[in-house]
Every structure is written in C-alpha cells, then in structure tokens.
Design a protein that fits this description.
The protein has 697 residues and is an alpha+beta fold. The chain has four domains: 204 residues, HUPs (Rossmann fold, 3-Layer(aba) Sandwich); 119 residues, Methionyl-trna Synthetase, domain 2 (Beta Complex); 191 residues, Isoleucyl-tRNA Synthetase, Domain 1, CATH 1.10.730.10; 104 residues, Beta Barrel (OB fold (Dihydrolipoamide Acetyltransferase, E2P)), CATH 2.40.50. 43% of the residues lie in helices and 17% in strands. The protein is built from 23 helices and 27 strands. β19 and β20 form a beta hairpin. α16 packs antiparallel against α17.
Amino acid sequence: MHTRNKKTIYMEQKQFKRTTITAALPYANGGVHIGHLAGVYVPADIYARYLRLKKQEVVFIGGSDEHGVPVTQRARKEGITPQDVVDRYHKIIKDSFEKFGISFDIYSRTTSDIHHKFAADFFRKLYDDGKLVEQTTKQFYDEKTGKFLTDRDVVGECPYCHKQAYGNQCEEGCLRALEPTELINPRSKETGETPVLKDTKNWYLPLNEYQEWLKEWILENHKEWRPNVYGQCKSWLDMDLQPRAMTRDLDWGIPVPVADAEGKVLYVWFDAPIGYVSNTKELCDKEPEKWGSWEKWWQDDDTRLVHFIGKDNIVFHCLIFPVMMKAHGKYIMPDNVPSNEFLNLENDKISTSRNWAVWLHEYLEDLPGKQDVLRYVLTANAPESKDNNFTWKNFQDNNNNELVAIYGNFVNRALQLTKKYWGGVVPACGELTEVDNATLNEFKDVKAKVEELLDTFKFRDAQKEAMNLARIGNRYITECEPWKVWKTDPKRVETILNISLQLVANLAIAFEPFLPFSSAKLRGMLNIETFEWEQLGQTDLIKAGHQLAEPELLFEKIEDDTIQAQLDKLEATKKANEAAAYKAEPIKPIVSFEDFEKLDIRVGHVKNCEKVKKSKKLLQFTLDDGTGEDRTILSGIAEWNNPEDLIGKDVLFIANFAPRKMMGMESQGMILSAVDFDGSLSVTSVLRGVKPGSQVG
C-alpha cells in the first residue's frame, strides 16, 4: 500500500479530542446582513451548538476585521477617523450577534492590543526565519496626496467590459480580477488625479514554494471537502501560485515590525485570519482554568480545526492562511472548510455599496422576537451547493406554512389537549396499537439521521429532518382524533397524548441547534429545564404525572402588512440607488436662437384638471391662456400627477403646436414636464404668480 493511501485512510479515521470553530471575521465598515448570516454565521452557530450538546470540547471564535482600505475610505467619506468607523460597526455587529443568538465563546477585534502584538510577532517570526521574500515593484502613487495607492484606491475603465472598475476587480460589470495597471484611464479614487508608477518595497509570501505541499494536502487528502471549495482550490493550484505581498503602503493597520518599513502595514488578509488565534489567546488568558492554553486549540494534533466562510474567502482560508501557518511551523491545518455560495435578495445580488441588503440590526428592530424565524428561513434556503435567493414572500410562507402550521400547530394541539383533559398533567402510556408502533418507528432513528447530516455540514437537510418530527406528530394526532375517542375511550387518549408529548420533547432537542430561542420557550412550556442530546429519539423523555406549564403559541403568523413594510423599504432603497446613479442625458445638438424663437412657450393658469375617461394615461387640462378663451390640452401624465393637485397652478405650455385629436378630443398644445431619474414626469411651473399668457423667453 502506498504511503499516501495510508495517510488518507489515517485522516479519515482520525478521532479528534476537541474542535476549534472559526467564523469569518465580518468587516467593520458596515453591519452584518442576511448574506453573511446564511453563508457563515448561522451554519457555524448550528455546528457549535450541536457539538456542545454532544458534550464535546469546542471553542467558537469570532471577531471584527478592522483594518484595510474600505475602512479608510468610509472614514474619509464621513470626515471621521478610521478608529471611529470600526468602533461604531464593531458595536453594532457584536450586539446584533448576541441578540440573534450566535453563541461565540469570544467575539473580539483586530484593533485590540493583544492582536496587534500577536500578528506583529507572527510576521516577525516568518521574517526572521527567512520565509518572506523582499521585492521592489512599481505601484501607483498619487502625487497630490504623496501616498501610494492600494488596488481599491485606483478606479478606471475595465479593459474587458468598459464599466467603472476598481484596481483589483470589476465589481459592477464582468467581475474579473484585475491589476491596477490594466485599467483604462486610471485615477485616484480620493483626488481624481492620474497616478504615476513609483518603486516601492514590500514583503511577499512565496506561495509557489508551497504548491506541491498544497496539492497533496488538499487535492489528495481532502477530497471530502465541498465541491465548490475543492474545485476553487484546484483551479488556483492548476494555474500555478505566485508570491503574494503580505505588506501594504498604508497608514491604517498594524505597522510592519522590521527596519526600513516606515509607512507600511500588514496586509489585511495576513492580519485578519491571525485574529482567530489572537482572539483564542485573549479568551484563554481570561479564563485559563476553563479553556487551557491557546496552543491547545491551534497547535495540538488532537484538535480539529473547522473554518466557516463565504465562497469569496476560499482562497485565503485554504491556500494563503495555511501557507502562513505552515511557514510558521507549529500550527494545525483546517480539517474542513465548509464554504457556502452566495445568497441573493429578491432576485438581485446583495450589495453593501448599494445598500441592497437585509441588515441584521434593522431586522431585530423591525421584527422583535423573530430571531428563530430568520434562522429557520436562512437554513431552509441555505446556499450550500449553489447560489440561492431570499424573498420576503418566501420568508412569510416558511413562517406561516411551516413554523406555525406544522411545528407550532402540533405543539399547541398536544399541550392544549393535555391541559383540557388532564389539567396539564402528563398521562400514562398504555397498550400500544399498530398506529402507535408505526409512529414510534418513524422517529426512532431521528438522532442518527440528524447527526449524520450535521457531521457532514448538511444543515439544510438536518433541519428538514427535525421538522419531519412535527409532521409525524401532526399526522399522528389527526389520524388518532383524541377529541373524538375521548367520549368513548379516555384510556386510549392517555396513550395518544403521552406519545404526542414525547414527540414534542424530541422536537425541543432536535431543534435546539437550529432554533435556540423557541427550544428554550418549549422547554419552559414542558416545565423541563434541560434535555440531553443523547436523549433524542427516546420515547420516555417526560414521565407520567409530570405537570406541564401553561401552553402558549410557539410561533405567530406574520401578516401581509409586516411583509409589505419590508418590501417598501427595499423599494425605497432601489429608488435611492437610481437617484444616486442618475446622470443627465447628453445635451442635444446646438440650435439657433431663431429656431428657439419659433416655439411659443407660455404660462397657463389651470382652471380645471381631470382624468380622461377610458384612458389610464391622459389628463385633460382647462387653461386660462390669457386670450379670454379657455384652452384644452391633453397630457399623458396621469400616472405621476393627481389632477386635483394641479388645479390653481400656473404651468408652462407650448401654445403654437398644431392641434391634434386624442380620445376623440382636440388637444391645443403641450404641457411641459420634466423627466425625473425614474422616468416620472413632473409638470413645470413658475416660481411666482404671473399673468396667464405670459411668454417664456
């Protein structure tokens, strides 16, 4: 047997003593949105909660990524300091995660003193060990500010699709990765100046030297990784890796801890993943008796490392960060990197720059107490294998048709019937019938099924399996009809409700990783403080004679007006984006003054205005045009103007257009309107009252 095959088999059989879970550090120049939640934080939290329920040793690490160019750009835009920016958004993000139930063991930040020292020391070790390569390259330089420009600070025309692009990517067009020098007519984003190329020195991580090791580690030994992760790694490795700069010419970040490096900081993608380790150290330093040393979680071969990330971070977590850790020499490698695809919003790509997103902190304000609804919907529609779509209609349907109508309905039926017939005391289970045994057999292997799915990061299917318990319960109660049987055989009803309550208790366990708030509420109604994960699938979770608490609705229906309010918010965002992106139409060809004089533009006083019958577009104006006779003009502006609002206004019209027939009526001229950015028409008028018939010129 070949050595490689032995290694592969060993890895498959490896039993780890503990698990380190990381969730991608959210960038602190904005809040967290549903795309982030669906891609990273909800699945990571489900997995962490699951392992804790199994009594496994686990640490769940999070924190804010607070360095890099977008922070400085926002600070510049708002006229505040970068520290002001990250302080604001770190608090928003941290508070939102806590309220939403993302159960980090620590949520820290990369501007902390402990992180700065840790990251600087990490870099210094690589430097001292000769693992970094010093290179001088030409980089764009803004002579007006006297600063080198990062890729994101250079904008210009994409050479492929010719849309506006950044120096690292065409984000609004073809999405290609770019180099700043490829841009057509490059300019500084800050000043608009044309930059010049100037020599600068930086330190590079020679990824090419680790290519063969990466190929064996990933392509040979981790074929179990998700196809999107494995495939992206393979495509990069097939192209041959190149050295990548680990420092940048910036004034916001961690200073490069070597001589002759003034004005340079650590590359944000060098700095940020080290934050996982420094945050772990911070946690361990605070509670060493509980967590032990940070080295145990990052340098012990008995520890399993799992990174939860979005697909745009695959290359950093599977190639660059592992090479950094390999070069350092002591660190364990990630055992799995379960990356999700992207989540779209109402059939459009989520975009922070366009504010096209559902922000977590706003959701928590708009829909209080609905954390689990969003957790459920995002998991049910998780983009595990392909990009998926979030719609508010689907959100409503998932809540009303599943959480309320299936899960909540079953729980309510079981508890209310127990209250009605036995005062909330759990009845004893009697002799089992065929339907009882069939029902019990249906959910006896639920634990094995859910565990198999969670162990392989199939969270969507695992949640479906949990919901299947409620479907089984509803079907059982409906088939047994205890409200009818009670009249003739109360003893039989005892058994029916005992089994139903066992199913309810199983639901409280099965949904614990997915819906922690509802599970806690359900345990309260069952009057049981806690369940063990090992009890899942058992049929004696609640003993006969146990007193239940007062039942209440586990979930509530979400009405149309709640959903409409969210759709209106998105529509307002869309309108604001259109307004911001508006550019005036090009000026028409030059005309002579003599040509202009041929138009007779006048002021008309609107005596009456009404909609034209059988027409959706036309308004009929009756104008005092100063001649002593009323003038009738038809105008196709009904969609944007209320006729009653126009009566009494002084408007501009063209008086010398030839009359034309419209809807059987003669229109004697044209009302002048301005076309807004969204295509709407606004009638033009004068600033102060003038006599009807006054000419414009």
